[in-house]
Amino acid sequence: MDGATYGMSPSRLLLLVRDRAAVRRYSPRTTQAYVHWIVRYVRWNNLQHPATFGGVQVRDFLTYLACERNVAA
Q1: What is the count of structural domains for the chain?
Q2: Is residue 18 a contact partner of residue 35, using CB atoms and an 8 Å limit?
Q3: Angle between helices 28-44 and 55-68 (to 10 degrees)
Q4: pLDDT (tens digit, 9 = 90+) per residue, 46-70?
Q5: Residue 36 lies in a domain
């Protein structure tokens, strides 16, 4: 996300994701999947806004998914 997303509420962030997916003409199912993973990511990081995260949080979340949840890379 760009700098305009800092300080947004989670629901506003998800609306922005949906809007940008619509502009890019993503299928509804793809948009739904993106929103699902964003929500899981935020919950995994104790409900902090993703704009406050760095590469370490992303790496840790992906490692968790691959190693503990058996999600395909």
Answers
A1: 1
A2: yes
A3: 100
A4: 888 778 888 899 899 999 999 998 8
A5: yes
